[in-house]
What we know:
By secondary structure, the chain is an alpha+beta fold. 52% of the residues lie in helices and 11% in strands.
Amino acid sequence: MKILEPYWGRRALDFVDAIEASKTAASVISQFEKVIGELGFHAYIMAGIPTSGQSLAELTVANGWPAEWFELYNRENLHVADPVPRHCFNTLNPFEWKDASYDRERDRPAHDVMMRARDFGLCEGFCIPIHYDDAIGAVSIAGERPYLDAETKGALHLMGVLTHGRLRALIRPTAASCGRRLSGMEAEVLRWAARGKTAWETGQILGISERNVRWHLEEAQRKLMTNNKTATVATAIVNREILI
């Protein structure tokens, strides 16, 4: 069924109003997941683009990739060969993944990344470069057969840039919390874990996906250098990272 073009112009403006009124990162992420889901996108990543010595994990603002793909991508440093983030250095404009061109014969690693992504249902994608003063990031979304036309691309561009900016504003450490290691979202999922909630239950409470909850738990574990969820919660309580 064809989606009426004027709808997405209005939808984008309503979305902007909603996230600007949102007070938590969970609320922003929930609304973003809902709106891209309406267009057939089931996965996303919002992150800085790694340079030498950096990993994608440490630069990620929000992670909605399949957990297995995110782990594989980081473990094998696939950002080095991935033509999508590489293309972000050459353009200010959003683009479809297929427009991040490469030579299949001469650049086999790039082709392998794109083919491996398809194994996780990331068949077609749309990427929005984010250029900071001193770095480059991106909002990249994907699905099996998402709906994209000129109107929806324009709406996604606006919504992606503003979502990324709003999340960075919400998770940026304040003067009162500059000594903390956990982001606001990581602390929030740990608070619910401390109350005995599963990742699925926490996702339902916060309005985000279960995989996103698990990713935040893993990031908290990495930052606090613990071995499991129980130890992570205990360390966070002792360090006054969370109050229950």
